Amino acid sequence: MAINAESPKKWKKDIAASVDLFNGWFMKFAPKAYRDTRITTTKEVEAALKLTNDLRAITPEVLRRSPGVLSTLRMSTCPPLARDRLVGLAYVNKNLVKIMEAGKAPTRMAEKEVKENLERITDIIGRMLDVDIFPWLGKKSGPDDGQRHRASTIVADRLCGSVSDPIIRNAQERRQLAYIAEYLKKKGYREKPHPPGRPIQEMEAGTFCFRLSVPTKRVNIPIDCVIQPKKRRPDGLPILIEAKSAGDFTNVNKRRKEEATKVNQLRELYGDDVAFILFLCGYFDIGYLGYEAAEGIDWVWEHRIQDMKKLGL
Questions:
Q1: Which fold would CATH assign to domain 8-29+166-311?
Q2: HSE of 14 in the Cβ direction (CA atoms, 13 Å)?
Q3: pLDDT at position 164, please?
Q4: Spans of all domains in the chain
Q5: What's the whole-number average pLDDT of the chain?
Q6: Contact between 19 and 283 (Cβ < 8 Å)
Q7: Quick count: other Cβ atoms within 10 Å of Cβ 26?
Q8: Selected residue with higher pLDDT from 14 and 138
Q9: Which of 71, 126, 233, 272 has its CA at 20 to 30 Å from residue 31's CA atom?
């Protein structure tokens, strides 16, 4: 079932084609993905401003009722505060800040400690608010709708800028999975969720699903795409595909051990012949490919998706 791992003479040409494909997509679609996220985030910032009376009532009580506004407040200061910087300046519990920014209220801390932490957070943010963005601060009258929207757009841009890589990565992943679905449907496959708790060997032939949690001896592993061929493999196991995209060569080499860890956990339960395949688009260099090949992991390039037929699909 060898696909590309055993053809190193083709790697350089494929790397160049993969980089070109990613760059073409990035130039065409990444700005839209970023703008769409910024529009949504702007609305969330406007809501946060109203909750705090346009930043004139940043209190521990507000943070208790709406803990998720904390990330907006961090981006409303001059300069904007990274999470760890706020923790350091306010001398507060890092886990408390993480929990609140996930939209949850702290439950495992003593009431007195929570109160003290929130008071220090609101004090730091109040002292560092960016008056150039919020010119109404210190005045009797609040902002009109235009001023509030303008300020919200700036803060939203800061929020999106701090997570721009995940925004692009998530948009690319959605596109990759849609491309896989399109290919499979043309081959006569149907998208059908696999019931949780049922062995993956019992997956219906000729079907596929996305983001299935596959059990191993240690943990459940989320797999991007799981395909049960029309003609089942002898062991009954479906094909497991991990969609990977990258906008530079550095990060992939930092993360290349992740796939090896996953496949080794899968092999512990399902055997050495488990079909774990990468679906690659972007900056994957010879070092990365060589590492994955040495771990017994094969891949399909997005620019040559027809190689999936070698999987028996």
A1: Trna Endonuclease; Chain: A, domain 1 (3.40.1350)
A2: 23
A3: 66
A4: 8-29+166-311, 36-162
A5: 91
A6: yes
A7: 17
A8: 14
A9: 71
Identify the helix (H) or strand (E) that includes residue 52. Answer: none
pTM value is 0.70
Catalogue the long-range contacts made by 11-16 (C-beta closer than 8 Å, 24 or more residues apart).
11/286, 11/289, 12/286, 14/301, 14/303, 14/304, 15/284, 15/285, 15/286, 15/289
pLDDT value of residue 10: 94
| Closest-CA residue to 283 (of 17, 30, 3, 5) | 17
Instruction: End-to-end CA distance of the chain: give it in Å, rounded.
Output: 11
- 288 close to 250: Cβ distance less than 8 angstroms: no
For residues 118 and 59, give the distance between their C-alpha atoms in angstroms, rounded to a whole number. Answer: 8
pLDDT of residue 277: 96
The label of the residue with tokens 């062995």 reads 199
Compute the 3-state secondary structure of the chain and give helix, strand, coil in percent, each to the nearest 5.
55, 15, 30
5, 299 Cβ separation under 8 angstroms: yes
Q: Helix, strand or coil for residue 281?
A: strand
Q: For residue 197, give both structure tokens.
A: 């708790």
> Where do we find the tokens 């017994």?
296
Q: Which amino acid does the sequence have at 34?
A: Y
163 falls in which pLDDT band (50, 70, 90)? low
| Tens-digit pLDDT profile for residues 22-55 | 999 888 888 888 888 889 999 999 999 999 999 9
Structure tokens at 243: 């969609």
Task: Quote the distance between the C-alpha of residue 197 and its chain's center.
Answer: 25
pLDDT tens digits, one per residue of 233-254: 999 999 999 999 988 887 787 7
The partner residues of 77 in beta bridges, in order of sequence, read 129
| Token couple for 298 | 């094969």
Name the DSSP letter for residue 240. Answer: E
